[in-house]
Structure formats: C-alpha cells, structure tokens
Amino acid sequence: MRDVEAIAKDRGLTNADLIAAAKTYLPSGEKDDYLMFASGGHAGQIFVVGLPSMRLLRSIAVFTPEPWQGWGYGVGNEILKEGFPNGKSNLWGDTHHPALSETKGDYDGQFVFINDKINARVAVIDLRDWETKQIVKNPLTLSDHGGTFVTPNTDYIIEGGQYAVPWGSEYAPISDYKEKYKGSVTLWKFDRNRGRIDKDQSFAIELPPYWQDLSDAGKLASDGYFFMNSLNTELATGGIQDKKPPFEAGASRNATDFLHIIDWKKAEQVFKAGKVEQIKGFPVITLETALAEGLLHVTPEPRSPHGVDVAPKGDFIVISGKLDPHVTIYSMDKIKKAIADKTFSGTDEFGVPILDFDSVVEARIEVGLGPLHTQFGPDGYAYTSLYLDSAVARWTMGGSYGSGTPEPDWTLVHKTPVHYNVGHIAVAEGDTVSPDGNYLVALNKWSVDRFYPTGPLLPQNLQLVDISDDGTKMPVIYDMPMGVGEPHYAQIVKADKLDPWTTYPEVGWDPHDQNINPMATKPKMERVQRNDDGTVDIFMTAIRSHFNPEHVYLKQGDVVRWHITNTERAVDATHGFAVPMYNITASLEPGEAVTIEFVADTPGTFPFYCSEFCSALHLEMMGYLMVEPE
Amino acid sequence: MASYLDRILGPRVHPLEASEHSMRYGAPGFILLTARVLLLVSLFLPYWHMELQAPQYPDGLHMTAHLNALSGDVAEIDGLNHYIGMRSLYEAAEIERTVGVFVMIAFVVMLELAAYIHTRWAVIMVVPVVFFPVVFLLDLHLWMKHFGLNLDPHAPLSNAVKPFVPTAMGKGGIGQFVTIATPGAGLILASVASFVLILALFFHRRAYLPLIKQQKRIDSVSA
Q1: Chain A residue with Cα closest to B78
Q2: Is the ipTM of this complex over 0.90?
Q3: Is B23 exposed, middle or buried (0-12, 13-18, 19+ CB in 10 A)?
Q4: Contact flag B83-A617 (C-beta cutoff 8 Å)
Q5: What value does the mean pLDDT of chain A take?
C-alpha cells in the first residue's frame, strides 16, 4: 500500500480520488455489474456502457449507417428503408430515449426500443444479438420526443409527438396553426414473440396542438394510464422575423403548461371497438372521441417541463419544469378521485377537462434551478437533475416511501455538483418498479473544462455518481467523455438480466428472421449461379482465412444477390466483406448469413477482402470480382 | 468332430462338484461377466480427451473421442490445423471408428465364450481384450505421428511449424497451444477390464487346470 501512497502523492490524488478509483476500476477480464443503454443522439445509434467502469462496450447501429457493423452498406438496408419518410432516403436519426422492454414493470433484458426525434420513428433492437430488427415511421407526425416508453408488460411502446404539424406533415401556413396543426401520441403494439411492432394493432390518439414532451407509463397504482408533459400550451407561433415574440418567449409565457393524463387501457378498447378515423392510413382516436370516451384529462404543471416520472409503486408522478425551482409531485389516488368526482377547474380551449391543480398535487419541493428529470432509488430517495444549477439533487419521498430515509418526508437532502448543464439522469433500474440505486449517471450536455480541448466541438460528459450511501454522501466518481453524438437519456440494467448470444445459434443464421436461412450458403455448395432471368446468385462461405469462391466473374449490368455465410463457430471469429467502388461492407458474425443485393453497374477488377483482422492470414483473405464491360 | 470341440472346451464340471465348490467354479465366470459389463459401458463413454490451451481461447478447445466418433471443437481445431498443413481429423482412424463398436461386441462374445472354454484356449479369447487399451493408445499414437509428420509443406505456417509428433497422452505443445491429452472414462473402464481379465485368467486356471490334469490321468490310464 505504500506504493499507492507514493503514486497518489506523485499524481496529486486525494484520498477521495483513490476511493473513486477503487470503486470504478475493473481489472482486465472482470465484468461490469450494470449495462447502460444510452441514446446516441445525432449519431442515430445506441451506446452501451458498462458500470461502474464507464467503459464503452459497443455502439448499436439504428437509424444511421455504421460501417463496422455493415449497417446500411449491405446489411440492414431494408430495415433502414422501412424508416425513410415518404420513401425519401434519410440516413441519420436523432435518437433520444431508449426504453428497455419490461415485464411487470421491471426490465427483462429482451429488447430495447428507441425513438428518432427528427423524423418520428421508432426502432426495435433484439438483445439476443444486439441488432436493429425494425424501424417504423410514424405516418402522422414528423417529430417525436415522448418516446420511447413502454407499458409495464411492453404491450405498447409509447411515442409522443413533439412539434405540432398538420397530419402527415402536409403543407399548411402557420396562420392555420390552431385549426390544422395537430398534437398526437402513438401507441405501437409490440408483438414480443415476433420481436416486432405490429402496425395493424397500433393506433394513435389526437391531442391538442401543444408540443407534447416526455411521457412515462403508469405502473402498479397507476397501471393503465400514461402521462405526458407539454409545452407551448400558449399555442405560440413565433415569428421573430416579423418582430413577433419568438417561440422561446411565446411558448413560455404562461406560468403553467399541461400534464396529460391518458387512460390507455380504455383507449385500447375504444380502438378495438373501431371508434377511430383512418388518417394517412393509420387509425386515430380523434380528440373529439377521446373526450367523449373520457380518455384524456390534463392538469396544470410548472412551465417548460421535461421529465414526467412515475414513482416505483406508481402512486406518485414527479414533474419538473425547467423554469420553476420545484419538483411537483402528483398523487395518483388524487388524480383518480378528481377524475371520478369531476373536480375540474375548467376546460382548455379544445374542451379537454382540466383537473384542479390543488386537488391532485401531493407535494412541492424546492430543489434548485432548472429541474429537469427525476429517477428513483430503492430506499425512498428520488434524484432530480438541475440543468441551470449543474447539479443532481437528492430528496426524500413521502407516503409509504418515507420510512426508507433518515430525513423527513418531501425534503431536499443534498445537491452534488456535476459538470455541466446536466440533462437526463439515469439511476440503476431507476424507472422500474424495483430501483437498484447504487449508481447514478448524469448525462451532462457541456463539459467545458473537464477534458483536453478537442477543438471547439467538445465531448459530452457522462458522470458516474455513487449513490450507495445515505444523506449527503453522493460523490462523482468517474467522468466519461462521449465524443460521438449526444446521449440524451439512458437506462441502466443489471447485466445478468441479459442473455446475449456469443455466436449465432447455427451456421446459416439470418439475423433478420432470427432463424436459419434456407438460402444460406452451405460449405461445399459454393458457386456462382447464373439464372434464367438474367440475375446472378453468388453462394459464398467465409472462414479463416479464405472466401470461397475467390474469383467471381460478372457482366456489367448483372443484378446480383451475393449470399455469404460465415461458417465459423468460434466466439469472436467475425469476418468482414468489403467491395471497393460498390459501397459495400458487411459484418459477418460467427454463423451469420447475409444477402447483399446490387447491380454490377461498374465494370472493372475489384479486390474484395475481409475487413476484420480475423487471423494471421487476414490480408490473404480476399478475392477478385471481375466485372466484364458490356 | 465332437471330440475336437470337446478338446477345445475342456472337461465339464460335475454339478455336484460345482455346487460343492461354487466359489472356485463361479469366480472365473463372474469375473468375466464383470469385464463384459465394463466394456459394454465403456462403449457409451469417451475414450480420450484433448484440450488445447491458447491465449485467445480462454475456455480452451476441447476434443473428445468415443470409440466410434469424434466430437467437440473438431471443426475449430481443423480450421487451425490447416494453417500448419495438417489433414482434417475426420480423416484419421476412419476404419477404427467404423468397426470399433463391432470389435467391442466381438470382444464381449469372446469373453462369453471364454467362460465356457475350460482349456488354455480361453486365453486366446481373453488376451486380445486384455491388450485392447494398449492397442487403442498405440493406434492413436501412430495416427498422431502420421498426421504430425505429414504436414503439407506448402501450408501457410510451414516455416514456423515443422513436422512434429503430437502427444497422445499427457502434456504437449505446438505453436501458441499447450495440448493436454487425458484418458476418457471409457478407456479407464477398458483398462480396469484388462486388469480384471488377468485376474479372471488366474481363477480360470485355478479352477480348471486340476480338472484337465485329472482328465489326462484318466485318459492315460484308459489308454
């Protein structure tokens, strides 16, 4: 231990630094306790980080082509295409909120979903092979922010819209805002057995043209409901260029916005009873129907809110409005009673009944400036990020949670500074029915001086906070720079809940169908097959350290289907397949079979090769594609 | 003809004598039966294991040989072997793996016969079985030697890995691999059977040699 002291002295490390290091350091080969699935922001991906080491384990390509995984360069093209708005190529995504699949309100480690805010899309990722299986494009709207959140058994994936647009984003001048612009939330039905969203069983609910923000599904005491924030309940239409108040002023003029309370179990029945309108080919429960059926209520909430977070038992809903120094805690019992008793303070201008604020609020706690998002611990503590204060607040819950903490109910306990401008936070399993606590990650937007300056574009800073102790002990113990995209939200799951494959179950596996592909090339069946219809099928295998066949002759203009099977069974024996000038690269994990389709439009001689350093003879793992000119 | 068969089978034991000395005359048969059971059970157990350890295979590579089959990471090992120009292991001992089970059944029949034969012909029936484990290992060694010494000289790693004799039993090494070959439960049972069979021969001789000598005396007197 004397060596440690010497090193600490030499490097200027404090005792707290040494403790932080000891809490986060993982010796080689040791594995993390938790996995954090973080959105990749502009990267259109998901990043998976191990905790407590804060090591980036992998990215998962979702909305954006990613060459290492071959995503969009030969594999996954069809899935990306599903998500093209109006069939128009769109190869980036603004991923925001990942949602791990849940069973009885607890993460089950089977799937993860994520939304793309820029084009209102939702993706399904299978956690057996960590690959995107489906992208659905919302036909009604062109931006979403209230996704993805799942109902407690993942029956539905909630995708709330954000900036109101006319249905299908058709043209309408902004002067028609109130009449033609629409708010909405879409409930995508998830078919767990198929691992796909079932579009035919999905529907949307029309909402007033507020800008709906984050959502969260109710659970236990609030099961059957979900909650959505909103901003711009002022219906501001901006226009700074015409000397009108800009959106930032107009949309935050009122002291309160509206918390939406939606009864989705009732909505499901309304949908199944056919009380929907087909809009853009998609079933929509109109606002009129929603009100007639009593599906939608609102209640005032502090303005410019972000998080709407349901407590572990489902009995409280915590709202933080970025422009109000409080967190506001609503009681589900009181909400249900107010709905039953029709304790309304009026209706909004679209006729939505407004539950009386005082009748539904349980508590308000002043936590600091810019409260943004709340997560829960296992012991009665809640944590709220403070964007303006650049801090994470710990406060105590009341009700049946109160006994878990030494401090009195509903009080601020401590604030830990973070660096800087924290957005979302994630506590280990902190939005489930049984939070783990232990770790909190602050997803900070600005890093300013935390890292070596990387030019004027700086990385975000993901800070790990140790929340395993009570009271005011809540130190930051690790800074992780994220120099790719912008992780908005993350969920942290106990690693042993996942059971991923380390190789595909059998040789010839099609990851898209999660089954054996009958067309997959089998060893000794390799060939180039010229079909009667003029197309060409190339049946190829890949194993250390050769492709078979190694010579492929094509004629210019051939329509080609190139079927490659990686016949390896060894863990990590991944091969790449890259063809120059044709913009093709595929990742072939052990057992995987892929089919790459293209037109051999460019004549010439093209050395294709394995782009993974698979073996000592990796450089020799190549072949020649020779395309004869017409 | 009958007398020829009688001379091979040897003298029969009178039922009264047999019941009076049940231990003496029961022992050879019982021990032969034990050996037969051991050998039959061994058919279902692995005869040989090979583990290959290397840095990039933290769990090692494992190969198991039953009398009639190779299993485990054979494809992966074959894949690695192609770098040094070794032939596929599936091409090794093909005949042995095809006939192995039948040979074992033949052995069981021979031991059955040995229980009925009371002359030294019984030894002919037993001795091949006694030597079976040794022959198995010898055959294994010869195949390994044959494969190891006949590497494709044009293989990618031919200048790094020279022909060698892989170790059929115990620890060996090749390239970055440490190889550990161990006997399987089947081979151990077969070896126990060999030991048991030697005991059986001893008890066989103790039971039937006096009868043969007695028969000879009777024959010489009557002659």
Answers
A1: A544
A2: no
A3: exposed
A4: yes
A5: 96
What's the half-sphere exposure (Cβ side, CA atoms, 13 Å) at A195?
Answer: 20
User: Is residue B48 within 8 Å of residue B64, measured between CB atoms?
Assistant: yes
State how far residue B99 is from chain A, nearest Cα, in angstroms: 28
Within 8 A by CB and 6+ apart from A550, the residues are A622, A623, A624
- Rounded to two decimals, the pTM is 0.91
Q: B83 and A570 in contact by Cβ < 8 A? A: no
Read off the pLDDT of residues A325-354 as tens digits, 9 standing for 90 and up: 999 999 999 999 999 999 999 999 999 999
Task: Please check whether residue A82 is in contact with residue A135, taking contact to mean a CB–CB distance below 8 angstroms.
Answer: yes
To test the contact with chain A by mutation, choose from B73, B77, B82 the residue with the greatest count of A C-beta atoms within 10 A, namely B82
The closest alpha carbon to A28, from B202, B58, B191, B195, belongs to B58
CA dist A189 and A536 (Å) reads: 39
Question: Inter-chain contact B76–A543, Cβ cutoff 8 Å?
Answer: no
DSSP class of residue A465?
A: E
A444 near A458, Cβ under 8 Å? no
Digit-coded pLDDT (tens) for B169-210? 999 998 889 999 999 999 999 999 999 999 999 998 888 888
Check: CB of residue B47 under 8 Å from CB of residue B175. no
d(CA B102, CA A551): 46
Distance from CA of B146 to the nearest CA of A (A): 25
